[in-house]
Amino acid sequence: xxxxxxxxxxxxxxxxxxxxxxxxxxxxxxxxxxxxxxxxxxxxxxxxxxxxxxxxxxxxxxxxxxxxxxxxxxxxxxxxxxxxxx
Length: 86
Description:
By secondary structure, the chain is of the alpha+beta class.
């Protein structure tokens, strides 16, 4: 819940940098990555949420890719000074 509050406060002012990731199943969009930021944006009153939607994906490969992206390949944190220098 703490993370959701932090995202809520952040997204009231700032934009979302990366889209939520979804897949299309039987004319329904199923969200599988980005649930917290999507919930925070809805809570903050946003009427639209940026999403990347996969159509007919291999679900097994998509899940493996997502798990790897959040584990072995996750983005490294950086110091504010590095960002300022860019």
